Amino acid sequence: MNASSSFLGFPAHMANDRLPRMVIFGVGHGSTYPGKDSRGYTLAADAIRAASQDDAGLVEHWDFDMGGPLFNGGPQCCLDAGNIQTTMYDNEGNRARIEAKTLEILKSQAVPILLGGDCSVTFPFLASFKDQGPVWVLQIDAHLDWRDEVYGERYGYSSPMRRASEMRHVAGIVQAGLRSVGSAGPADVDAARCYGSHLVTAREIHAQGVEVALGHIPQGARVVITLDCDSLDPSIMPGVAARTPGGLSYTQVIDLIAGVSTRASIAGFDLVEFYPPADIDGMSALTAARIIVNTIGSIARQV
After folding, report:
1. Alpha-carbon distance values, 147 to 156, 161, 174, 178, 255 (Å)
2. Residue 91: left (phi > 0), alpha (psi -120 to 50), or beta?
3. Which domain holds residue 174?
4. pLDDT tens across 5-24, in order?
5. How far is CA 174 from CA 1, 71, 83, 137, 246, in A?
């Protein structure tokens, strides 16, 4: 990948053998359900990269979302490693490739930033932290994602938080932005509560602010954030498979991300469920790109 097509023009390798602080990579397919077509998600990572290009020359400029330039006066420390190869329906192989790439980044002591397919890519991403624990998980999502299996598949997009709850290195889960109706039944909600997951609805965040979710994250914890794009209101994020009114605002989402970096630390980040075929005038890609920019800025400001 060349700089003209990478996120914000970031290089694929650091100069002078410096180690990166963050590494971006894209994923198309995770664990696709039988009979489902996940090809639209393969467009997501490059659509986000394209939306970032207008700001590629502005990295040193003042960003009012962050109160300063992107890297806070420090050197550029983020790479874009391109996309890893995945194949629809090669679910086990896709999980192995995602986990291997994430492990490679973690071994370099960098923070992995995944531009994803659907929520099924979150399972291998989280699994990669098995030697990096304990970690907390902040899921920003409209849906619970606690189904045990769907169509016989236990690693599809409806199950990543159930699978996360089974990981010994996951110390706790906060699920923020929940709203409307999805695949979760009462038994799934009971199972999440029995595990101890902290369920925070979008309505609670609208009424009480992002602290109602951040307050569940212990000070100093290492946190993996998984952001499902349908957590945002479809007025600013129409490019999702399940548009639902009442979602979080852009400001609420970046405040959640920044809030993690100030009370704890971001150990990893994925952005999933952006579905470019449903986007309108590139609005979702632009919103997703700005969220990634804010994530990079938040990680750059971590002690």
Report:
1. 9, 8, 17, 15, 29
2. alpha
3. 7-300
4. 999 999 999 887 788 999 99
5. 35, 28, 29, 6, 19
Residue 187 placed within a domain? yes
Q: Does 137 have pLDDT greater than 90?
A: yes
Q: Which two tokens stand for residue 83?
A: 């996309």
CA–CA gap between residue 135 and residue 140 (Å, rounded): 16
Alpha helices per DSSP H over 150-264: 160-165, 186-195, 202-208, 211-214, 250-263
Mean pLDDT of all residues in 231-242: 97
Single-letter code of the amino acid located at 142: A
CATH number at residue 173: 3.40.800.10
Please tell me the pTM assigned to this model: 0.97
Q: Residue 2: inside a domain, yes or no?
A: no
Q: Give dist(CA 143, CA 151) in Å, integer.
A: 18
Q: Is residue 94 part of a domain?
A: yes
Residue 268 placed within a domain: yes
- Separation of alpha carbons 103 and 87, rounded Å: 20
Average pLDDT over residues 235-255: 97
Contact 21, 78 (CB under 8 A): yes
Pairing type for strands 198-201 and 170-178 reads parallel
pLDDT confidence of 205, banded at 50, 70, 90? very high
- Packing angle, helices 283-300 and 44-52, rounded to 10: 80
Count of structural domains, the chain? 1
